[in-house]
Amino acid sequence: MDKLIKKYSDLYRAALNKWQLSDVEGKTASYEKRLREMYESDVFREHNVYPTMNVELIYAVIAMCLELKGFGLSNREIMDFSDTVFEKRKKFFAVLEKAVDVLPNSYKIAEKWNINDHDKRVKDGSITYDIFEVQDGRIEYSISRCKYVDMFEYYGIRPLCKIFCNTDTSTYIKLTRHVKFTRYSDLSDGDCCHDVIERK
Fold it and tell me: Is 136 exposed, middle or buried (0-12, 13-18, 19+ CB in 10 A)?
């Protein structure tokens, strides 16, 4: 866990500096302490049982959210801060997504990813699907329970799970040639996550 704590603390420190916030070292030390305590908690061990989820990363983000709320940032500011923390990671995936976008079979790639992800999530119980329908050139699903949301809700910051909910939106916004993505709602602030993916 020490390596993970150092990794996420370094990212947090860099973002604090980028945002020109005060007492960077003090804030980083507070984050390290919180994250260590969260990693050592019984609830972390209860949550860290889903093979499809990087619970260490989720907890690192939750700890950041709690720290940032503690010194008065709004939810919108916290989500923007998270984008700063993971800026390099996002840029790396953006390059891959743009490469996929130029392929004529990009919809089939998205379809396969969704089917495989659905099967793995159902198997490990991390997501509950009320609907998962695959037709020629169209996938629609509705999710009523998600362990990502449950973890954020446990720590009293459910709306900030949108940090993870938005990863789908940010992915599909780069797949514009052959794929159309429509999100009607997500569980961070709604009753279900309802998405449709279609072939253009």
Answer: exposed
Q: Pick the closest to residue 46 from 187, 146, 147, 171 (CA basis).
A: 147
pTM for the complete prediction?
Answer: 0.92
> Would you say 149 and 160 are in contact if contact means Cβ atoms under 8 Å apart?
no
- Residues 111/139, Cβ–Cβ less than 8 Å: yes
Please tell me the distance from the alpha carbon of residue 47 to that of residue 148, in angstroms, as a whole number: 10
Backbone angles phi, psi at 134, to 5 degrees: -115, 120
Q: Which amino acid is at 162?
A: K
| Separation of alpha carbons 114 and 146, rounded Å | 16
Q: What is the pLDDT of residues 141-196, one digit of tens each?
A: 999 999 999 999 999 999 999 999 998 888 888 888 899 999 999 999 999 999 99
